[in-house]
Write a structure and sequence with these properties.
Blueprint (H helix, E strand, L loop, with lengths): L1 H10 L23 H6 L5 E2 L12 E3 L1 E2 L2 H12 L6 H19 L8 H10 L11 E5 L4 H7 L3 H15 L4 E3 L3 E3 L11 H8 L3 E3 L7 E9 L3 H12 L3 E10 L5
Parallel strand pairs: 2-9, 3-9, 4-5, 4-8, 8-9
Antiparallel strand pairs: 1-2, 6-7
Helix pairs in contact: 4-7, 8-9
Bound molecules: zinc ion (ZN).
Length: 254
């Protein structure tokens, strides 16, 4: 099935990975996404609100509900190797991360490119300068998942997000500061509580993050258990975790 899908992708390179259209008025954009689907990723960022809120979850931000074309785009990128989607998804992730930084940073002085440039050349070391270099830390995938997918989708997306955030005048780097300490059972089908229990102690920090301002990055937030565990591990290493940036949030099931 996967081979068939891959061949289909090769045979129909102009098909939008979100909605499947072959063409749109104005033409299908490059990077496997049409203008309409790209618009779904354009924001603005909003707060995600998992219920119940896991203990220790930093404020989570997201761009879209995890459904329809946005879900298809994320799955195509993660599971089907449509790596060209990393840039538009990374752009959405960047909007989330900027919102998390803005909300989580007292004295934040805005993040437009001009302001960032002025601060950069003035040498005043104020505003974002005083925050130090922000670390965008992707939630780690298991080694097995990376092997099966052929790439680490979240890291790839985070790299493009970093470029976007830098272009907005914020000093930021991707830091792969987390790794899985043990195997984690598949979260699908677990309740919120079971997800949290499944993940306790799952991650550990493997990079120097003490005193650093950190935003956790992931593609989708569901119960928030994964992000909360990532934040726990980073805080245990001394990081100042100001928020969680995601592209999409699983709609609440009432
Ligand atoms: Zn589309």
């Amino acid at each position: 099935m996967r081979l068939f899908e891959t061949l289909l992708d090769l045979a129909l390179p102009q098909r939008c990975a979100g909605c499947g259209v072959l063409d749109q008025p104005g033409g299908v954009l490059d990077q496997s996404i049409c203008t309409l689907c790209a618009a779904l990723l354009s924001g603005p960022a909003r707060r995600a609100s998992p219920v119940p809120v896991p203990l220790g979850l930093p404020p989570p931000w997201t761009i879209s509900a995890y459904e329809g074309p946005v879900q298809a785009l994320i799955v195509a990128h993660k599971e089907r190797g449509r790596t060209s989607l990393a840039r538009p998804l990374g752009r959405a992730l960047a909007k989330s991360a900027l919102a998390a930084l803005e909300a989580g940073s007292p004295g934040w002085g805005g993040h437009d490119a001009q302001a960032g440039h002025e601060r950069g050349v003035s040498g005043s070391h104020s505003a974002t300068e005083g925050l130090g270099v922000v670390a965008l830390v992707p939630v780690p995938s298991s080694a097995m998942a990376v092997r099966q997918r052929g790439h680490d989708a979240t890291r790839r997306m985070a790299s493009f997000a970093v470029q976007e955030i830098q272009a907005a005048g914020v000093r930021v780097v991707r830091v792969d500061a987390l790794r899985q300490r043990r195997r984690v059972a598949d979260q699908a089908g677990l309740s919120s509580t079971a997800r949290a229990v499944n993940l306790v102690g799952a991650f550990e920090a493997v990079a120097w993050v003490a005193g650093r301002r950190v935003v956790v990055a992931d593609d989708v937030i569901t119960s928030g258990a994964t992000s909360a565990e990532a934040a726990r591990a980073l805080r245990a290493a001394g990081a100042d975790v100001v928020g969680v940036a995601t592209v999409a949030a699983t709609p609440r099931k009432w």
